[in-house]
Specification:
491 residues; mainly alpha; 19 helices; 0% strand; globular; membrane; transport; Sodium:Solute_Symporter
């Protein structure tokens, strides 16, 4: 690292804080703070959506999978891109028309308020762990940049993200994400990718140095790919962090086309990460852990100045997902858990200063919690797997069932969340976090519980379904169509 590299990094970090302050000046309501006023156009929407889904696990973890498995290591990030494409093409327009703030509010609308609290708890656990995965990644990056101790690195990176997220909420995060998207594109796709391939001697030399399996599209294993689809593709369909970005779209067209563009970008990013990891395997065949591949190739293979920019790109990837997950976690904690316990609900219109201030407080609290948990954990991919297993096993069936099956009921949704979530957690404790059985059994148990209990209970009230249909269609909503208050919702 030279003075030029350090200057690039410091200017980048200072810029993030400055954008956070600027975003605060644009935030005057809860809508501004949580969903950027629901007025993002296609360029900003595409950039911020790509930024949030491609974080530390996709960058550092994706390169690590490429180091371990070769080109087939791209599958984890490919399934993320496929999930985002499916969300954008089939569901995003309807989701945006609901005009809510959280996934649990959507469940309240669909089922009449019967499952909001427990679904909020599951979603909170997911977003918390998602924020943790990105925060853990600061240790690797700041160790390369400044040689910092792991704990100090996590605290430093986490504090910067907490500061700009707390200041301006989604507006600050949107502004920083756009910068991060540009830096990440230049640093990873346009600089690190070609330099890594050239340093490794080109594809011909890479093929001669590595086993044939490194260039097989299914070298990672068909079962692993299938599990990735279940966890990450379906996870993209239902995550609060992703839905909260959909809510920022100006209209249906922006949500659909902007999300499709972001999904296509994810596919390119997936291939780039796997190729970089494969090149790192040629250059450094004996690394202690695959997750060290990214930092090592950046540290040893890049020239002065470029090294600083690529490390800034890595920070961009980590910070964008970390901030997006953090605001999602705080939104769920405040509006789906704390507000319900107090017998209150979040309005979808304007908001008082106290409501914006309350959301700021929760971002600060959740940020401190994320930093603390990140210090205790160490494996990026394992933490991400825990997050997505709990999310998909607990909430996929109630959410997709609510969108696609009219006969689904609130009791069925509640049973599905509880049975699926508990099954996943129990099997992760028994079989191990990275085992395939937890998500397989969790999804099956969740589906059986949802269908069986829905058919065994009374259909959802026609008035509730009528309100739901009108909101999905984007028709003018009467006051009764607001998300059900936890104080008055049917249990």
């Amino acid at each position: 690292m030279t003075a030029v590299d350090y200057t690039v990094i410091v200017v980048y970090l200072a810029g993030m804080l400055a954008l956070g302050w600027w975003g605060m000046r644009r935030t005057t309501s809860t809508s501004d703070f949580l969903v950027a006023g629901r007025r993002l156009g296609p360029v900003m929407y595409s950039g911020t959506m790509a930024a949030i889904v491609l974080g530390g696990a996709s960058t550092i973890g994706g390169v690590g999978l490429g180091y371990q498995y070769g080109l087939s290591g791209a599958w984890m990030v490919v399934t993320i891109g496929l999930g985002l494409l499916a969300l954008s093409v089939f569901f995003s327009a309807r989701i945006a028309r609901l005009k809510v703030y959280t996934v649990s509010q959507m469940l309240d609308l669909r089922y009449g308020g019967s499952s909001g609290l427990i679904s909020g708890i599951v979603m909170w656990a997911y977003t918390l762990m998602l924020a943790v995965t990105s925060t853990i990644a600061y240790a690797t990056i700041f160790d390369v940049i400044f040689g910092l101790d792991r704990v100090v690195a996590i605290v430093l990176g986490g504090t910067i993200v907490v500061c700009y997220s707390t200041l301006g909420g989604m507006w600050s995060i949107t502004l920083t994400d756009m910068v991060q998207f540009v830096v990440k594109t230049v640093g990873v796709l346009l600089l690190l990718l070609p330099i890594a391939v050239v340093k490794a001697g080109g594809f011909t030399a890479m093929k001669s140095e590595l086993p044939h399996g490194y260039f097989s599209p299914m070298g990672i294993g068909g079962q692993t790919v299938f599990t990735y689809v279940l966890i990450y593709s379906f996870g993209m369909l239902i995550g609060q962090d992703i839905w909260q970005r959909v809510f920022t779209a100006r209209d249906d067209r922006v949500a659909r086309l902007g999300g499709t563009t972001a999904g296509a970008y994810c596919l390119a990013y997936a291939v780039a990460g796997a190729v970089i990891g494969t090149a790192a395997k040629v250059l450094y065949p004996e690394l202690g852990t695959p997750d060290d591949a990214f930092a090592t190739i950046v540290k040893d293979a890049l020239p002065v100045g470029v090294k600083g920019l690529v490390l800034a790109a890595a920070l961009s990837a980590v910070m964008s997902t970390s901030s997006g997950a953090l605001i999602a976690c705080a939104t769920v904690a405040n509006n789906d858990i704390w507000a319900r316990l107090r017998g209150r609900t979040l309005r979808t219109g304007g908001a008082s200063h106290d409501e914006v201030g309350g959301n700021r407080v929760f971002i600060l609290i959740m940020g401190v919690a994320v930093i603390g948990i990140s210090v205790a954990l160490n494996n990026v991919v394992e933490a991400l797997t825990v997050a997505y297993n709990v999310l998909v096993g607990g909430l996929l069936m109630p959410i997709l069932g609510g969108l696609l099956w009219k006969r689904g009921t609130g009791a069925g949704a509640l049973s599905s969340v509880g049975v699926g979530g508990l099954t996943v957690i129990a099997l992760m404790m028994w079989k191990g976090i990275l085992a395939n059985e937890p998500i397989y059994a969790g999804l099956l148990a969740s589906l059986v519980a949802y269908v069986a209990v829905s058919l065994a209970t009374r259909p959802t009230d026609a008035a509730i379904l009528d309100v739901w249909r009108r909101r999905l269609a984007g028709e003018p909503a009467a006051p009764a169509s607001e998300p059900a208050s936890p104080a008055t919702a049917n249990a």
